C-alpha cells in the first residue's frame, strides 16, 4: 500500500465551500480523515455529499478553502494512483466476463495489482468467467470495486455504492470492503442509509445543508441526540405544565395519549406518575433514525 510520510492524513478539508451560482452546496467544511479509517458521509438528498467527494477526487475545485489528499493536491494524488473511486453506475461492458473486464482495466495502468488478487479481494473470484450482463447489481458493484483496487489506492471513495441493491447484495459488498480495509486502506463513502453507516463505518460524519452537523461513532451520534421519548395514557393532559418541566423539547397529544420528547426522562416520568393520573408510562431511547432527523433539523 502506498502512503506518504509528508502527511499522516488521508484527507484534509479546511474551510471548504462550494457555490454553484447562487446555490451554496457546501458551506464551510473542516474534516480530517486518518489512514485506515472507514468513514460514512451520511446526509439527506442535496446535503452536499457528492459535491464534497467530487472535490476530494479533484473533479471540481472549492470556491474557498483547501482540499488535500495524502498531503497533495487531489489531482496529483489521483495522477499518482493513490486514489480510486467506485461510482453508482456506468462504465461496464456487458458482453465480456468479469475477469476480462478487470484484465482490460489493468492493461490501461502502468503498474497494477495482479488481476486474480483483486478478484479475490473483491469476493468475485468465483464468478470470474461470468458475463457482466449476467451479474446482479451487487456483483457489478463488487466488480467496480475490484477495478478500483488495481492501483492499490491508499484512499477509496464510494458515492452511494449500494443504491438499488438488495440486503444480501449489500451485505456481500460491505464484507468485501471491510475485509480489504483491514489492510489499512482509508475508505470514505456517501450514503443515505443510516443503518449502512452505523453497521459498516468506524466513524459517521453527518452532513446537512452543506455543513457537518455531527461527527463520531454510531453510538456517539446517537448519544448526541440523547433525548428520550416518554409515552403515557393521559386524557386531558396539561401540555403547558409538561412543557414547563426542565429539559422537555416537545409535547404531542394524540387522543388520550401524550408523547413527550425530553432530555430528562426521569423528571417527566416522575411528574406523570405522581402529579397526574397517567398510566402505561413508557420510556424509549431515540433510535439512530430519530437522532438523524433531529440533528439534520428535518424532524417534523
Ligand atoms: N453542478 C451543479 N449546479 C448547480 N447546483 C448543483 C450542482 N451540483 C450540485 N448542486 C446543488 O448542490 C446541492 C448539493 O448537492 P449534492 O449532489 O452534493 O448533494 P448530495 O448530498 O450528494 O445529495 P444526494 O444524496 O441527493 O446525491 C444541491 O442543492 C444540488 O442541487
TrEMBL record:
<dbReference type="InterPro" id="IPR003593">
    <property type="entry name" value="AAA+_ATPase"/>
</dbReference>
<feature type="domain" description="ABC transporter">
    <location>
        <begin position="11"/>
        <end position="234"/>
    </location>
</feature>
<dbReference type="InterPro" id="IPR027417">
    <property type="entry name" value="P-loop_NTPase"/>
</dbReference>
<dbReference type="InterPro" id="IPR050763">
    <property type="entry name" value="ABC_transporter_ATP-binding"/>
</dbReference>
<dbReference type="Pfam" id="PF00005">
    <property type="entry name" value="ABC_tran"/>
</dbReference>
<keyword id="KW-0046">Antibiotic resistance</keyword>
<keyword id="KW-0547">Nucleotide-binding</keyword>
<protein>
    <submittedName>
        <fullName>ABC transporter ATP-binding protein</fullName>
    </submittedName>
</protein>
<dbReference type="GO" id="GO:0005524">
    <property type="term" value="F:ATP binding"/>
</dbReference>
<dbReference type="InterPro" id="IPR003439">
    <property type="entry name" value="ABC_transporter-like_ATP-bd"/>
</dbReference>
<dbReference type="InterPro" id="IPR017871">
    <property type="entry name" value="ABC_transporter-like_CS"/>
</dbReference>
<keyword id="KW-0813">Transport</keyword>
<keyword id="KW-0067">ATP-binding</keyword>
